[in-house]
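TA notes, week 10

Several of you asked for a full example with nothing omitted. So below is the full record: C-alpha cells for the whole chain, then the designed sequence directly under it. When grading your own attempts, check the secondary structure regions first.
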C-alpha cells in the first residue's frame, strides 16, 4: 500500500492543504518548527489511528480550534483503492471511516496500511526504560497480527481488573480470593500467547539486525536483541505453567503492594552490540546505528508477515548522519517502498548540489505550516 493523496484541515500548525505523493520517495524540506514533523504525524495517525507523539487527540488541533480532519487515498500494487478519514472535535470525539464506513473500534484500522516511523523520539527505544521497548514490539506485532492486538487489549483489561482486586486485598478484605483465581486463569491464558508472539518476532528480527548493523556501521560487531520475559518460552504450555508458578510465588508481595508484579507488562528486551549492553554502555553513534538497523529490520519483518511493503516515515533523517550514510540508510529498505523523508533547508541544498535528488522524486517545501511542491531542476 502507498499513500496517493492526503488532505489535511486544522491539524496542528499545518495550513489547509491537499497533497499528492510519489509512490517512491517524497522529501519534505524546511527550517525547524515549520511543520515537517506535523505532516509526518498526520500520515502516521491516518494509518494507526493514534499519534506517536501524544495520547491526547485534542492536542492535535490548532490551539484556537476545536478539531481536525485528515483524509487519505491509498493504492495497492494490485491497484485496489482505499479511503481513510479521521475527524475529531471536542463534542463528538474521534471518528474514523474506511471507504465511507465508520469503524466502531479504532484498532480495526491497525495493520490495514502498515507503517514504520524513525524519529527523534525513538531514541528511547534503545536508551530509555523497558516500557519503550515493549511499546515498539507491541506496535510491530499489532500491525503484523490482529490476533496479537486483540490479545494485548484483553490482557490490559484483565490486568486492570486483577490490580483492582489486589488493591482491595491491601485493605484487608479477604473475600476476593475466588475472583482472583478467575483473573489469574485469564491472565495466564492470554499472557502466554503474548509471550510466545514476542519470542517469535525476536527470532525473526535478529538476523536482519545483525546484517543491517554491519552494513551501516564501520564496525564488524553484531547487533541483537534478547527477550527477557518472566516465564520460560519453551512452548505455550510451558509458558502457561511457568507464568502460573510465578503468580503463586509472588502472591504475598502482590497483596502487600496492591499490583501485579509478573507478566508481559513487566517484560524486558535488551539490545547487545556483541556482548555488551547497548543501553548501559553504548555511545550516541552506536545508539543511532542500532536504531536505524532496528527500523530497517522492522520493515523487512513486517513485509514478510503482511506480504506488503510498509510506508516509511524517516523524520529528520540527516541529523547526525552525513549524506553518504543517509543514502546507505535508505538502501536498507526495499527500493519499492514509499518513503517520506524530512530534512532542513541546508539538507536540501546539499543534496541538490551533490545530485542526491532525482526528477522522479516528489519534493516539498514546508514553511510556517504551508506546504508547496518544488519542481526539481
Amino acid at each position: 500500500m502507498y499513500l496517493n493523496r492526503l488532505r489535511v484541515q486544522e491539524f496542528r500548525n499545518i495550513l489547509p492543504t491537499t497533497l499528492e505523493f510519489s509512490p517512491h520517495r517524497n522529501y519534505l524540506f524546511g527550517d525547524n518548527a515549520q511543520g515537517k514533523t506535523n505532516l509526518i504525524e498526520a500520515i502516521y495517525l491516518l494509518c494507526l489511528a493514534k499519534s506517536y507523539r501524544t495520547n491526547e487527540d485534542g492536542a492535535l488541533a490548532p490551539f484556537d480550534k476545536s478539531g481536525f480532519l485528515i483524509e487519505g487515498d491509498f493504492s495497492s500494487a494490485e491497484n485496489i483503492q482505499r479511503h481513510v478519514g479521521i475527524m475529531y472535535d471536542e463534542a463528538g470525539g474521534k471518528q474514523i471511516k474506511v471507504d465511507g464506513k465508520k469503524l466502531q473500534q479504532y484498532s480495526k484500522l491497525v495493520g490495514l496500511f502498515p507503517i514504520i516511523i524513525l524519529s527523534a523520539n525513538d531514541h528511547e527505544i534503545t536508551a530509555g526504560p523497558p516500557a519503550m521497548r515493549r511499546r515498539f514490539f507491541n506496535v510491530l506485532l499489532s500491525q503484523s497480527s490482529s490476533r496479537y492486538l486483540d490479545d494485548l487489549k484483553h490482557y490490559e483489561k484483565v490486568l486492570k481488573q486483577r490490580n483492582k482486586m489486589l488493591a482491595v486485598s491491601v485493605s484487608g478484605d479477604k473475600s476476593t480470593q475466588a475472583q482472583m483465581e478467575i483473573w489469574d486463569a485469564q491472565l495466564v491464558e492470554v499472557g502466554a500467547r503474548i509471550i510466545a508472539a514476542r519470542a517469535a518476532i525476536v527470532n525473526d528480527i535478529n538476523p536482519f539486525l545483525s546484517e543491517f548493523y554491519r552494513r551501516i556501521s564501520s564496525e564488524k560487531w553484531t547487533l541483537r536483541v534478547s527477550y527477557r520475559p518472566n516465564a520460560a518460552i519453551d512452548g505455550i504450555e510451558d509458558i502457561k505453567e511457568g507464568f502460573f508458578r510465578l503468580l503463586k510465588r509472588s502472591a504475598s508481595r502482590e497483596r502487600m503492594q496492591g499490583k501485579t508484579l509478573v507478566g508481559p507488562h513487566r517484560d524486558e528486551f535488551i539490545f547487545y552490540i556483541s556482548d555488551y549492553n547497548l543501553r548501559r554502555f553504548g555511545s550516541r553513534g552506536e545508539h543511532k546505528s542500532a536504531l536505524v538497523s532496528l527500523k530497517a529490520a522492522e520493515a523487512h519483518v513486517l513485509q514478510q508477515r503482511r506480504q506488503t511493503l510498509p510506508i516509511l516515515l524517516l523524520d529528520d533523517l540527516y541529523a547526525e548522519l552525513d549524506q553518504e550514510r543517509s543514502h546507505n540508510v535508505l538502501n536498507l529498505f526495499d527500493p519499492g517502498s514509499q518513503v517520506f523523508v524530512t530534512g532542513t533547508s541546508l539538507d536540501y541544498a546539499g543534496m541538490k548540489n551533490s545530485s542526491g535528488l532525482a526528477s522522479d522524486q516528489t519534493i516539498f517545501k514546508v514553511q510556517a505550516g504551508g506546504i508547496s511542491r518544488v519542481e526539481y531542476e
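The chain has a mean pLDDT of 91. Use that as a sanity check on your answer.
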